[in-house]
Amino acid sequence: MRRRLVLVLPALLAGCASPAVEWVRLLPVPGQPRATPPCIILLRDLRLAAELDRPGPLHAAGGSRVMLPGRERWAAPLEGMAGHVLLRDLAQRLPACVLRDAEAPAMPAAAAPLEAVIDIALDRFEAGADGQAWLEAEATLFWPSSPTRPPRALRVERRMPPDGPGPEPLARALSAALAQLADALAGLLAGALAGTLVEAPPPPTTSPSLSRKDHAG
């Protein structure tokens, strides 16, 4: 009898074991390089909305309800990972510039002028109730080399359909949405460095932007 219990217990424990955690991460997505003079650009701050600071990707469930699926987990804290990936996206799009974050050591003043400082508030970065990746961000750009130039605000809203079900396609779609934020920032920065500010490009027709009001309805 004792031997039978010893044999059955491992099988019961195996049947009750929790499913394996699925770890996902954001990745850079290449975009169009822009011609600019050499400069330094500082990504000073990227802040997450408080509800996004969770162990895994947030899923909207309609109205004000959100869910956090049990098996999906970010491979690193989202705020730092998003900032790191956005910095790499911008560096690829602005190859003549040096992209830095607030934790990087100071560079010699003679290296290149500090032309722009960027602060970003990431208000939405999640799976919408329709399954698409949603991004809403507000960026503010400052111009240390031109003190009389006023700061520039940039609002970016994007929806990206994942290429399949599950956490990995969602992470790829969120990475693509973050890359489109980099596209908008790179276009504005390239215009500013050329002496002509340009408007951010409109959202692609394949992934139209939606406001928070539209989502709530």
Can you tell me about this structure?
Helices cover 29% and strands 27% of the residues. It has 217 residues and is α/β, with parallel strands linked by helices. The protein has a single domain (23-216), classed as Rossmann fold (3-Layer(aba) Sandwich). A five-stranded mixed beta sheet has the order 6-2-7-8-9, with helices on one face. Strand 7 (114-127) and strand 8 form a beta hairpin. The longest helix is centred in the C-terminal third of the chain and has 27 residues, at 167-193. Residues 1-9, 196-200 and 205-217 have low confidence and may be disordered.
User: Strand portion, in percent?
Assistant: 25-35%
- The SSE order reads HEEEEEHEEEEHH
Question: What is the β-strand count?
Answer: 9
Counting DSSP H or I runs of 4 or more residues, the number of helices is 4
Radius of gyration: 21 Å
Counting structural domains, the number is: 1
Detail the poorly predicted runs: 1-9, 196-200, 205-217
Lateral arrangement of strands in the main beta sheet: 6-2-7-8-9
Q: Give the end-to-end Cα distance, rounded to a whole number of Å.
A: 61 Å
Just name the CATH architecture: 3-Layer(aba) Sandwich
Helix content: 25-40%
What would the CATH topology be? Rossmann fold
Mean of residue pLDDT values: 83
Task: Report the top-level CATH class.
Answer: Alpha Beta
What profile does the largest beta sheet have?
5 strands, mixed
SS class:
alpha/beta
